[in-house]
Every structure is written in structure tokens, then in C-alpha cells.
Write a structure and sequence with these properties.
The chain has 1192 residues and is α+β, with helices and mostly antiparallel strands. The protein has 31 helices and 40 strands. Among the domains are: 149 residues, Methane Monooxygenase Hydroxylase, Chain G, domain 1 (Up-down Bundle); 107 residues, 2-Layer Sandwich (Alpha-Beta Plaits), CATH 3.30.70; 184 residues, Pleckstrin-homology domain (PH domain)/Phosphotyrosine-binding domain (PTB) (PH-domain like, Roll); 54 residues, SH3 Domains (SH3 type barrels, Roll), CATH 2.30.30.40. The structure holds adenosine-5'-diphosphate and magnesium ion. One of its GO terms (molecular function) is ATP binding.
């Protein structure tokens, strides 16, 4: 926070020293130099430790903006450049922290800027205290506005243009603001001192009366003008004495509005305002009463009409008023006995002076009433802490100085005393008391001057004045002479001397010669009895209330003198100030011409000297910036040490001093930076104190930010939770859809496969325990596809089938058959095997004139088939025994399917023989035996000399579910996710992902579900790439059907390579496909067209085709690839358009991928959930109906 300084500060870097305590040489010249350097750069504030020095710039400098004010809030003195806001901040903050009353003492000559400074302090406090902008506490806001509005009001009535200052305060004031427990202003009080009432009747040339008269004369309403006889100021004698009616740059009419507004804010009623203006008018009109000289040293009011108007305004009968003005009531006295009263006529001068006294008395009382009225508005019965701001006229020296100047200078002496007491004397005394090591500083103590003025024994000037007043009583003749004689006793004081009719006092601020004549009169300050009488008979209660004085002046009681009053007030003020912590602002006046940018060296030097800035610096440098009681220090800084504080609570149980030491030790404070006294701890440098403060602040700040962070975390946790719940719910919904889809899929697959399941179950029994198992055979039940070669669309097959071309094909596949060449050994030869409802065909490919030609090899009526044989090993041989001359020995992946279909066709279960040797008829009545031998050398069937070499398969007893349980298979087997996948965190709209991919799971947790969901048939980790034909014949026994091999099984691995399609070339699959595993024994799997050839997860090789040649490759030797005919299209239906609501990625090869917004054409509603559709490029496939919206 310390590095954020107001802009203007940066510009003033290196422009003299901010704090003159740091001057290299402590001399008055250095001080002057520093101030001058800064003044020239418009840096008007400089400090000496806590004391602020302000040099009046006599121009507006933009350093009082709200932004700059805000900058000072909460900052310690050294954090920002010296400023009146900084003093205000320290004052306010000390009040809060120390719980003690504070005061700001602003001193300086007239025009040095005291009042402006006081206003800035008020503004700062009003602005930073209480809740900003809140109107929750009406009272606080009200008090604040009164505090701010008293300025324009009191300035109107108490300020005037003087030669030194266009807005010179002609009274002193001490403004106390009272704070409530939450440190908001809740009340206030003004004490006013010595209004310069002589100004009401007389001004120096170039000066004005109090502002309010000019404002009133220029701004009065028509009604007021008529009622009070108000005209322009030039018409009133009292306003024209100084020949100055206006002030440059000041609009009195405008100011009058502000004054009236201030009255309203403060709550001065319309009636009260009326009374005030009536009295103001009366004063003006009193001033216009002229006297003419009459013979016999008498005088007479010149213009009766003026007198009449005045008597009308003050509501006193005109004859009484006339008498009071023209005569003085006298009384004969005989010792203590009262005599007779008689009227003594007044000469013109006496009459004029009496008239002026009347006007001054009224104004003085009016001003006091105003202050009391403001106080009433700010009154608060509660007791609270106070901040007082003292703005009192500064030291004055004129060519001729009288009683007023002496009083003013006396007050300034008293203030200087307090300053010395606080900054110099008390400080040093305290060091002695506390036993602090310390080098005493010599300084001038002005106590002796105060004694000279206020002392009783020996009598001071005020005492002598009072004595003389008493002695001369109502006679003024000879009084002045008497004073000069008696005051000579003061010569014993070295600060006093007499000069003829005058005397000289050596003030701390300089020598001042006071004129003797007039002093006694001024000191008496008693209202003429005649005047008091007529004012008290006024019909205007407002006026009579201003003069509640006792009429009887003959009592033994001594009348109070002005000197006595001022002494009492000064003593009260001093005692108030001494009860508060003082803050000093010393205002300096750079020139006497009120001009900006003029720095008169000697003028400033004079002020530097009498303000004692040099001593101030010296004491400061030698002393300690801060001291406080051990207990107080502990209470304030216990947060700083973990020995004294735990979780912001004070835990110190020992004595306060040891606690203080623990705190200082925790902060590594250098031993030379503090001293321990008897009851107090003394901190030498303010910087150290500020650093303690900052650490303390930071503690709270850290606490606050911890709470803030915790709250923020809590909020974001809340949000995160709600997001998660939302996501989880969405996932759950999606999951439900997926589950339903999965179940539907399985159900569909099961529906399709279930007939074969039964078929297989039957066959299974025949094979069980009798034949070693091919891994693929035991994996699952698959749907029998039958016509793998799509014979109907292959004209060359149909051609080869000749007259059988119209028969219904129930099965077709590539295979190998055992051929029996006449002169050579039996061997395997590729064939196409086609089974129709009527016949079994084997078709071979022959090269004829470089053309591949399909020729019918054999044709066996289905009705002739009467048995099947299988080896007992894990091969793909099937021997189809017939009633014909010879049998058919076939090697085919789909041996079980062949058997099953033929059985079905025949409507019976033909016998099955399983043996190690299979015998069959290779020709009419010619037997051939193939022996099946185990041979691990050959992973694929090796057929030679009627021996089929077969690698060991799974044990014959292997049930299908046993395979599924095989741990090596377990984790790769499922097509449906084997574990419920991770929750990804973001769930988009339902877009069908491949089933093998993670499926969002309700709950969204990262944990896998303990039990995999619906885990259908497993797949071997390493698929056996090719079926192995086996050599060797076996004696024909009962052939048993086998479960379908190469059932479509799910796997997590994508199919990287093209998957051969039955009867077609390799068709690349664009997307990795994860297929549902084939269910074993129970659950049929696979929704779409089964893929007979690709074992689960088969990563690399195309599935070998019966006959040993992958379909992908052209048949060896065949010059022309066999062209595939397009499949016949489904008959067209009336078009129904469907709009895709979401993206869908095909999960199965028979499905169609589409994007949200695509338009598809309905081909067929296969069932409620799955429809056959065609996209715009003509591709057909199954689509989930829930993703689509049928367009009307
Ligand atoms: N900080 C300031 N910035 C600008 N002008 C100032 C400042 N302080 C005083 N002045 C000018 O000096 C004049 C006299 O100031 P004021 O406070 O009335 O003096 P004092 O109260 O000491 O007699 C003001 O009217 C104003 O024009
Ligand atoms: Mg002032």
C-alpha cells in the first residue's frame, strides 16, 4: 500500500526534504531554504516530525481532490508526503486507536491560511468518518452537514476583508466534534473567542465590515428591503468607512445564498432569520444616525426620521431611544449611599461613541447567539470522544496596537506555551521522570511572557488594568494616565518596557508596543446602563433575550472586565487542549501582498524564528517519537508475537513489560531504537512505530482475507457442487438413454440370434466333450448369416449353378474340399460352397483362356445328406455324408452353421460322428480315411497324405462359459464397456459414442463400478487369425455340429484394418469400432448384421476366408478381379423426411452416422427404436429413432 502514492507526489520527488528533522544542518537558514525550494515547486507542506508546516500558496493547487483525500485514508504519516489530510488522518486514527480526545492546533499570522486549513480538516473528518454515502444514520449525516455548514455561516458573520486577508476571521474559534462509539460524528460544540466588534462601526481604509452586511444589502429580498429599509451598502455609514464595498472575485449575492442555506441546514427558523436580519438592519440604521452639535457642548440627533426608523426596528419608543443617545444618566454618590439620578448631555463625539457602542453591543450579542444556536443544533447529551480544531487569530503587530492586539497576542503566547509544554518541556521532563537517557536541548520558554500578561503576583498587565478600572470606576478621565504610572511595576520583567504613553512587550514572536490610551475603556467593556435599559424595554423578545444582564451596576460585585474574561477563556481553552492529544499545524505566510509565487525570505524567516521551528527540530532529533504505557503497548501490539497472541486473542499472563519485550523481540527491533522507562516504553523513530502498525494492520488484513477467501471458496464450492449435480443429472439422463439403447441393442441382437441359439445349444450337446474346441467356436452364439457370398447378386455363381439358379440359397461361403486326384495324393482345394434349399453345390474357379471361369464341381441334393463327421481335434473339417456315391469333405469356418442349416432343412437332427479318424466315401464304394493328428508345429491346418495336422485346441470339455471366465480373456472381451467409464465432467447433448467408449455414468465419479455392467461374451486377447485345416482323415462317425466360429465379438481395440465382408472386398471402416462382445450361452449380442469373420479385437489381419484365400486379394492367376454387383436396392417408399436432432456416430457397420441438422429419408421402420434410413448421399443404415424428428 505504501507504494501507491498520489500522482502529484511523484512530481515532487527530490524537491527539498519532506521532513526537516532530516536536515543535514539544523539552522534557520536551512529551514528557510528548504521551505523556499518546496514553495517554488508548489509543495506547500513540510513536516517536522508530527508538526506540519504549511505555507499559504495564495492560489489553488490541485491537491485537495477526493482522490488524494482517499489516498491518505488509513495511511501512516510517513507513507505519503506531508499534507493537511495526513494530520487529519493521524488525528482521527489516534482518537480511534488511543481512545483519547484529540486536538489540532492551527497557528499562524492573519492570512497565513489557518481557517482554510481548519476547513480541510473538517472536510476530511466528515468524509472519512461514518459509513460513506449511507443515509442509514440520519443523525450522523445531519451533524456532518451542520459541521460543514457552520463555516459559511460563521464566516459571513465573523469574517471580513482586511488588508492582510480578504476573508479574515475576526474571531477565534475552537470547534469540537463529538464522536459516537462507532467513531461517527454525533455532536459538536463551538467556543468562540473575542469577536473584533469594533469593526462593526469602523474599518481601515481598504477594509470592510463583516461580510454579512454587504451580503444582506446586496442580496435582500424586495420584502426585506421594504420592511427593513435596506439599500445598497454605499447608503450605510458603517459599511463605507473603509471605502471598500466589494472584494475581487467574491459575489456577495451568491455568498448570501450560501449563508441563508447554511442557516436552513443548521435549523435556524424563518422567524429567527427574520429577527437576525431585522437586527442587522437596525445596526446599519443606527450607524446612519447623525448628531449635530448644539451650543454648550451638547448634541442632538440630526434626522428624527432615521431615529424613528431605528426605534421601529428595535421596537423601543423613539423618545427613550433619543434620550439614551443624547444624554448619559448620572447619579450622585455619597460614599456608599445612592444619590439622585440626573441626565448629563453628551457632546457630539460622546454621542457618536455611545451610538457606536450600542451597535457593537447588539452585533456582539447577536454573534454569540448565533454560536449558541449552532451549538444547540449540534448538541448531544452523550459523552463521546472529541476532536477539537483550534483556529484562532494569529500574532498581530500593527503600527498602533491597542487592547485588542494585546489580547490576541496573549492568546498566542498561551498557545505557544502549550506547544512548548507538549513538544519540548513535557517531553524532556518525561525523559527525566522515566529515567531515559537523553541529551537536554535548550529552548526559549515563553512562560515568562505569559506571566507578564496574566500574572497575579507580581501583578501582570491584566491585573493592573483591572485595578485601574476599579479605581476609576465610571470616570475615564485620568484613567489612561493612571495606567501608565502603575504599569511601570512590570519593568521587573525583562520582557517589558515602557515608552511614554505606551508600553512594549517582548513577545516570543517579537516586540510589540501597545498604546496606553483607550486600554482602560476597552477593558471595562461594560454596556452603558442607559443602553441596557432601553434594549431591555424592547418589544422584540429576540432582542431582549440577547441582553439578560443585571441592570443594577451599583452592587458591590466588581463588573467583569474584558481582560478577566479573556484570561478565564484562555485558561479554559488551555485546560481543554491539555486534556487532548495535540496535533500541530503551523501556517506560514510567504508574503504580505497575498500574491501567489512570492516568497519573501525575511518575512518567512521571521515566522520561522518566532515559531521556534529550530528548537522543534532539535528536540525532535534528540528525542523519541512515541511513548506509551507498557500495558497500552501490550494491548495494542500483542498480535505481533505468538508469545502474546493466539488466534487474535491475547494470551499473555506475565507482567506487561515482559510482554512488551516479547513483542519487540518478535519484531527484531534494534536495541538502540527503543528505551524502556519506568512505566513507559519509548520508541525512537516513527518509522519503527509505523512498521509495528503495519504488521498489526497486516495481521487483521490477513485475517480478513482469510475469511474472504474461505467465503469465496465456499461460494465456488457451492457453484461447483451445483454444476456437478446438474452434470450428473444430465449424465444420468443420458446414461439412461444409453442403457436403454444398449438393452434394446442386445435385445434386438438376441431376437435375431435366438433361433440359432437353440440350434447351437442342440449342436453343442453333440460336440461337447468329444471334440477339441476352436477358440472362436466357443466364444459366442452368433446369428447365422447364411449367404455370405451373396450369391443372388453374383451372376457367375448363378451361371455355374445352371438350372439351380432359381433355388433359394441358404448358405454360401468359401471353403476347401478334399480332392482325390487320380494319380496323386489327396489334397485340399478351394471351392465355393453354396447350399440351397434343394442342393449343395461346390463351385470351382478355373482359368480358361486367361479368364476366370466358375464351374460347377459337384451338386448334391440336400435330401441325400444323411450324417456328419467331425474330427475330435480343433479343426474346421466337416464331412457331409450322403446317400450318393461319395461324400463331401469340406474345410470351412462355418461348419456348424452348415450342419445346422442342413439339419434344419431336413427337419431332423442327422447323426454326428466324431473321431480321430474319419472315414468317408471319396468315390463310389471307395473309402478314404483322414487321420487327424496333433501337431503343434502347424498353427494352421496342414493336410498331407490324408493326415490333417492340427494344433491343440481348447479341451473338448471346455464349455463356452468356461472360456468366458478365462482370465486372459476377461479384460478385453466386452463390447459393452467392461467398466462404467469415467465421468468426463462435461456432458454434451446426447451424441452416441461407440459403445466401446466410456459411457457417462451417473454420479460422475472417477471410480469404476465394482461390477462391470452387462458384460457379454469375452474374446480372446489374441485372436487366432486363421482357421486351420487339418490333414488326416478320420473314420466317419457321428458328425456333430459346431458352434459358429468368428462370432462378432466386442473389443476395446479399434479395427485398424479393413474387415472383409462376406463375399465382398475389404471395406475400410472409417471409425474405430467397438463391438459388443458376443454373449456366451445366455446373451446374444450384436444388433446389426453379424460379422462372421472378425474375431474380437482382431487388430491386424483380414479374416481368412474359406478356401484359404482372403477375399481381398484377387484369386491367384485370375487376371480380372471379380467385380461385385451392387446389392439390390430396397423398393422405394413414399418419402418421409427426418431431421436429426443430435449428432450420431454409428456404432455398428450397419448404422448410419449423421450430424445434428442432417435430413434423412426414412426407408423402413424396422422397429420402434431402429429405423432404416438413407442420407442425402444415398448411404443407408440403421438409425436410432429417438435422435430424429419426423418432418411433416
Ligand atoms: N491551502 C491553501 N490553498 C490555497 N489558498 C489558500 C490556502 N490557504 C489559504 N489560502 C488563501 O489565503 C487566504 C487566507 O487564508 P485564511 O485561512 O483565511 O487565513 P487565516 O485564517 O490564517 O487568517 C484564503 O482566503 C485563501 O485565499
Ligand atoms: Mg482565519
Amino acid at each position: 500500500m505504501a507504494n501507491k502514492k498520489p500522482e502529484w507526489n511523484n512530481a515532487m520527488k527530490n524537491e527539498g526534504l519532506d521532513d526537516m528533522t532530516l536536515l543535514s544542518k539544523v539552522t534557520n537558514d536551512q529551514i528557510l531554504d528548504n521551505l523556499k525550494k518546496r514553495f517554488e515547486k508548489d509543495i506547500i507542506y513540510t513536516s517536522i516530525g508530527d508538526v506540519l508546516i504549511a505555507v499559504n500558496p495564495f492560489k489553488q493547487i490541485p491537491i485537495y481532490t477526493d482522490e488524494i483525500l482517499e489516498d491518505y485514508v488509513g495511511k501512516s504519516r510517513i507513507e505519503l508526503p506531508p499534507h493537511v489530510f495526513s494530520v487529519a488522518e493521524q488525528t482521527y486514527r489516534s482518537m480511534i486507536n488511543e481512545k483519547e480526545n484529540q486536538c489540532v492546533i492551527i497557528s499562524g499570522e492573519s492570512g497565513a491560511g489557518k481557517t482554510e486549513t481548519a476547513k480541510l480538516i473538517m472536510r476530511y473528518i466528515a468524509q472519512v468518518s461514518g459509513e460513506k454515502g449511507s443515509t442509514s444514520n440520519k443523525k450522523v449525516e445531519h451533524i456532518k452537514s451542520i459541521i460543514l455548514e457552520t463555516n459559511p455561516l460563521l464566516e459571513a458573520f465573523g469574517n471580513a476583508k482586511t488588508l492582510r486577508n480578504n476573508n479574515s476571521s475576526r474571531f477565534g474559534k475552537y470547534f469540537e466534534i463529538q464522536f459516537n462509539k462507532t467513531n461517527e460524528p454525533e455532536g459538536g460544540k463551538i467556543t468562540n473567542y473575542l469577536l473584533e466588534k469594533s469593526r462593526v462601526t469602523w474599518q481601515l481604509n481598504g477594509e470592510r465590515n463583516f461580510h454579512i452586511f454587504y451580503q444582506f444589502c446586496k442580496g435582500a429580498t424586495k420584502k426585506e428591503q421594504d420592511e427593513f429599509g435596506i439599500y445598497g451598502p454605499e447608503n450605510f455609514a458603517y459599511l463605507a468607512k473603509g471605502n471598500t464595498l466589494d472584494i475581487d472575485g467574491v459575489d456577495d449575492v451568491e455568498e448570501f445564498q450560501l449563508t441563508r442555506n447554511a442557516m436552513n441546514v443548521i435549523g435556524i427558523t424563518a422567524q429567527e432569520q427574520h429577527n437576525i436580519f431585522k437586527l442587522l438592519a437596525a445596526i446599519l440604521w443606527i450607524g446612519n444616525i447623525e448628531f449635530k452639535e448644539l451650543p454648550g457642548d451638547k448634541s442632538q440627533v440630526s434626522d428624527q426620521s432615521v431615529l424613528d426608523f431605528v426605534s421601529q426596528l428595535i421596537e423601543v419608543p423613539n423618545n427613550f431611544l433619543k434620550t439614551a443617545l443624547e444624554f448619559r444618566q448620572m447619579e450622585t454618590r455619597h460614599g456608599n449611599q445612592r444619590g439622585t439620578q440626573y441626565n448629563v448631555p453628551l457632546n457630539k463625539t460622546q454621542a457618536q461613541s455611545g451610538r457606536d457602542a450600542l451597535a457593537k453591543a447588539i452585533y456582539d450579542r447577536l454573534f454569540n447567539w448565533l454560536v449558541l444556536r449552532i451549538n444547540k443544533a449540534m448538541e448531544n447529551p452523550n459523552k463521546g470522544l472529541l476532536i477539537g480544531v483550534l483556529d484562532i487569530y494569529g500574532f498581530e503587530v500593527f503600527d498602533k496596537n491597542g487592547f485588542d492586539q494585546m489580547v490576541i497576542n496573549y492568546i498566542n503566547e498561551k498557545l505557544q506555551q502549550i506547544f512548548i509544554e507538549f513538544t519540548l518541556k513535557m517531553e524532556q521532563e518525561e525523559y527525566v521522570r522515566e529515567g531515559i537517557k537523553w541529551e537536554p536541548i535548550q529552548y526559549f520558554d515563553n512562560k515568562i511572557v505569559c506571566e507578564l500578561i496574566e500574572g497575579k503576583n507580581p501583578p501582570g498587565i491584566f491585573s493592573i488594568l483591572d485595578d485601574v478600572c476599579r479605581a476609576v470606576h465610571s470616570q475615564s478621565e485620568g484613567a489612561d494616565q493612571s495606567l501608565i504610572q502603575r504599569i511601570a511595576v512590570c519593568k521587573a520583567n525583562p520582557h517589558f518596557d515602557t515608552r511614554g504613553n505606551a508600553f512594549c512587550v517582548k513577545h516570543y514572536a517579537g516586540d510589540v508596543t501597545y498604546e496606553g490610551p483607550g486600554m482602560i475603556e476597552k477593558n471595562k467593556d461594560t454596556l452603558l446602563k442607559d443602553h441596557l435599559e432601553i434594549l431591555q424595554m424592547s418589544g422584540n423578545s429576540f432582542l431582549t433575550a440577547l441582553f439578560p444582564d443585571e441592570i443594577d451596576q451599583d452592587s458591590k460585585k466588581l463588573p467583569t472586565t474584558a481582560g478577566f474574561k479573556i484570561k478565564t477563556q484562555a485558561a479554559e481553552l488551555v485546560s481543554t487542549l491539555m486534556k487532548s492529544t495535540p496535533h500541530y499545524i503551523r501556517c506560514l505566510k510567504p508574503n504580505d501582498v497575498k500574491k501567489p509565487n512570492v516568497f519573501e525570505g525575511p518575512r518567512v524567516m521571521h515566522q520561522i524564528k518566532y515559531l521556534g521551528l529550530l528548537d522543534n527540530i532539535k528536540v525532535r532529533r534528540a528525542g523519541f517519537a512515541y511513548r506509551t504505557l507498557f500495558q497500552k503497548f501490550l494491548e495494542r501490539y500483542y498480535l505481533l508475537s505468538d508469545k502474546t497472541c493466539y488466534a487474535a486473542n491475547m494470551i499473555w499472563k506475565g507482567d506487561p513489560l515482559s510482554g512488551c519485550r516479547a513483542i519487540l523481540a518478535s519484531q527484531n527491533v534494534d536495541a538502540t531504537h527503543f528505551q524502556i522507562g519506568k512505566s513507559k516504553i519509548f520508541i525512537r523513530y516513527p518509522e519503527m512505530l509505523f512498521s509495528l502498525e503495519e504488521t498489526r494492520e497486516r495481521y487483521w488484513h490477513d485475517m480478513a482475507s482469510r475469511i474472504k477467501n474461505a467465503y469465496r471458496n465456499y461460494k465456488s464450492f457451492q457453484e461447483e457442487c451445483s454444476n456437478r449435480i446438474k452434470n450428473a443429472f444430465r449424465n444420468y439422463k443420458l446414461y439412461k438413454v444409453r442403457c436403454a439403447q444398449t438393452i434394446q441393442g442386445y435385445y434386438r441382437a438376441w431376437k435375431q440370434a435366438s433361433p440359432y441359439f437353440d440350434m447351437r445349444a442342440k449342436n453343442e450337446q453333440l460336440i461337447q466333450n468329444r471334440k477339441e474346441r476352436n477358440r472362436f467356436s466357443v466364444l459366442s452364439v452368433r446369428k447365422f448369416f447364411g449367404d455370405y457370398l451373396d450369391v443372388r447378386s453374383q451372376g457367375y455363381f448363378l451361371d455355374a449353378m445352371a438350372e439351380g439358379r432359381n433355388e433359394e440359397v441358404i448358405f454360401s461361403a468359401k471353403c476347401q474340399v478334399v480332392v482325390h486326384p487320380i494319380l496323386s495324393a489327396n489334397k485340399l482345394s478351394p471351392r465355393f460352397l453354396i447350399v440351397t434349399k434343394q442342393h449343395i453345390y461346390t463351385i470351382k474357379l478355373k482359368q480358361k483362356k486367361n479368364l476366370a471361369t466358375y464351374l460347377l464341381d459337384r451338386k448334391i441334393p440336400v435330401s441325400d445328406v444323411n450324417a456328419f463327421s467331425f474330427s475330435n481335434l480343433a479343426d474346421n473339417f466337416i464331412f457331409i455324408h450322403t446317400a450318393q456315391e461319395f461324400d463331401l469333405a469340406v474345410v470351412c469356418d462355418f461348419k456348424t452353421e452348415i450342419m445346422a442349416l442342413l439339419n434344419q432343412q431336413k427337419g431332423t437332427q442327422l447323426p454326428v460322428n466324431i473321431n480321430q479318424q474319419i472315414q468317408y466315401f471319396k468315390k463310389k464304394s471307395s473309402n478314404n480315411t483322414i487321420t487327424f493328428v496333433k501337431d503343434e508345429m502347424h498353427k494352421e491346418v496342414f493336410f498331407k497324405k490324408n493326415q490333417a495336422h492340427i494344433a491343440t485346441g481348447l479341451p473338448a470339455s471346455t464349455p463356452i462359459n468356461k472360456v468366458r471366465k478365462n482370465p486372459s480373456v476377461k479384460n478385453t472381451s466386452s463390447g459393452v464397456p467392461k467398466q462404467i467409464p469415467k465421468f468426463s465432467g462435461t456432458v454434451p447433448k446426447p451424441s452416441a459414442k461407440p459403445m466401446g467408449k466410456p459411457m457417462p455414468q451417473p454420479g460422475g465419479g472417477p471410480k469404476p463400478m465394482a461390477k462391470p455392467m452387462a458384460q457379454p461374451g469375452g474374446a480372446p486377447q489374441k485372436p487366432m487369425a486363421k482357421p486351420m485345416p487339418q490333414p488326416g482323415g478320420a473314420p466317419m462317425s457321428k458328425p456333430l455340429p459346431q458352434p459358429g466360429a468368428g462370432a462378432p465379438v466386442g473389443g476395446a481395440k479399434p479395427m485398424a484394418k479393413p474387415m472383409p465382408q462376406p463375399g465382398g472386398g475389404p471395406k475400410p471402416m472409417a471409425k474405430p469400432m467397438a463391438q459388443p462382445g458376443a454373449p456366451v450361452a445366455k446373451q446374444p449380442v450384436g444388433r446389426g448384421t453379424p460379422m462372421p469373420s472378425q474375431p474380437n479385437g482382431g487388430p491386424s489381419k483380414p479374416m481368412p476366408q474359406p478356401g484359404g484365400t482372403p477375399m481381398a486379394k484377387p484369386t491367384p492367376g485370375a487376371p480380372k478381379p471379380v467385380a461385385m454387383k451392387p446389392k439390390p436396392q430396397a423398393p422405394s417408399q413414399p418419402t418421409v423426411q427426418m431431421l436429426a436432432l443430435y449428432d450420431y456416430d454409428a456404432n455398428q457397420p450397419d448404422e448410419l452416422t449423421f450430424k445434428e441438422g442432417d435430413v434423412l429419408t426414412l426407408v423402413k421402420k424396422v422397429d420402434a427404436d431402429w429405423w432404416l434410413a438413407q442420407n442425402t448421399s444415398g448411404t443407408k443404415g440403421m438409425v436410432p429413432s429417438v435422435y430424429l424428428e419426423v418432418q411433416k
